[in-house]
Amino acid sequence: SDIGAQKDRVVTEEEWLRKWEMNNIGFHKEQGHPLLQKYLDVLLNGRSGLRIFFPLCGKAVEMKWLADMGHSVVGVEVSEQALKEFFAEHSLPYCEEPVPEISGAKKLQSTSGNISLYCCSIYDLSSSIVGKFDGVWDRGALVAVNPRDRQSYASLMITLMEKNSSYLLVTVSYDPNKHKGPPFYVPESEIKSLFG
Ligand code: SAH
User: Fold this and answer.
1) Overall CATH class of domain 13-195
2) Which residue has better confidence, 4 or 169?
3) Banded pLDDT at 190 (limits 50, 70, 90)
4) What residues have CB less than 8 Å from 17, skipping those under 6 apart?
5) Residue 18 labelled as part of a binding site
């Protein structure tokens, strides 16, 4: 479970913004992720009206799915373009407001109120700003975080979780010496030590 050369790799926020500008977003799944459908029951566990968090959300269509099921969705994403594309592609009206606790951050909220997307770095969030969540959909998030930041990412995620919450995590398995990522390879042993 050696992560090889990936351990020192850094993708900057500017690089992510550029990927969105260049439409270099091969990670986006137009049809949504089959693993969320498959494990939806594990995430919901029979509960309704949950607060679900989408870290590093991009324009994930699964946010619309869960909102349509009556849950309340919160996402965070550095690219404002991604968030605007999300609302536009689902024809959802939204309004924008500043986030007083985070300089330069904005919150884009669907007019219906059940989808709130923060445009800022996830490292700027805390439970005093976004509250705690009953469920997390982590796809393209832990695996997109720079390897050196995994510990702070995981610690933050733990502080955002309600006691009886469920966390669905999607990772990818491949030889980290053959591709530079992202998505990065996160060994199972590391996931265990990050989340306990
Ligand atoms: N989860 C989404 C997007 C995956 S790609 C999906 O499944 O489609 C990773 C996303 O994280 C990109 O959109 C990138 O712009 C965003 N991102 C990268 N670093 C971030 C950070 N520190 N805070 C918030 N968003 C970030």
Assistant:
1) alpha beta
2) 169
3) very high
4) 78, 79, 81
5) yes
d(CA 157, CA 94): 26
**21 marked ligand binding residue:** yes
Q: How confident is the model at residue 4 (pLDDT cuts 50, 70, 90)?
A: confident
**d(Cα 129, Cα 159) in Å, to the nearest integer?**
12
Predicted confidence (pLDDT) per residue in 30-59, tens digit: 999 999 999 999 999 999 999 999 999 999
* Cα 191 to the center of its chain, rounded Å: 16
Please name the residues in contact with 12: beta carbons below 8 A apart, sequence gap of 6 or more. Answer: none
Ligand 1 pocket at CB < 6 A:
13, 16, 27-28, 56-58, 60, 76-79, 82, 121-123, 139-141, 144
Closest CA to ligand 1's atom 17: 56
Q: 16, 66, 119: which to mutate for ligand 1, most atoms within 8 A of CB?
A: 16
**Coil/strand/helix, residue 107:** strand
Residue nearest to atom 25 of ligand 1 (CA): 77
The DSSP element (H or E) to which 95 belongs, if any, is strand 94-98
**Three-state DSSP state, 96:** strand
